Amino acid sequence: MQRHVSFVTGAASGIGLAIAQQLSRRGDAVAIADLNVKAGEAAAQALRDSGHEAIFVELDVAKRESWVKAVNLRGTWALKRFSQP
To answer: What is the pTM of this model?
Structure first.
């Protein structure tokens, strides 16, 4: 079975959240990236409570260093989740 990890920006609410929910329903593990920590953590928890794999990654899309940190965190999470045989 092929596994996908999706990284969705602006996913704490609105269209980004709807996209994250749809991707999780198709079986993707989802990294919810957003500047709004409280809403992002709640969105990720709601997906996990529904039986899906999700994490929250704080991201300010206007700052390069925020991207580097977010992508590295998401990558580490994905490797831990899917490198097991």
So the answer is: 0.83
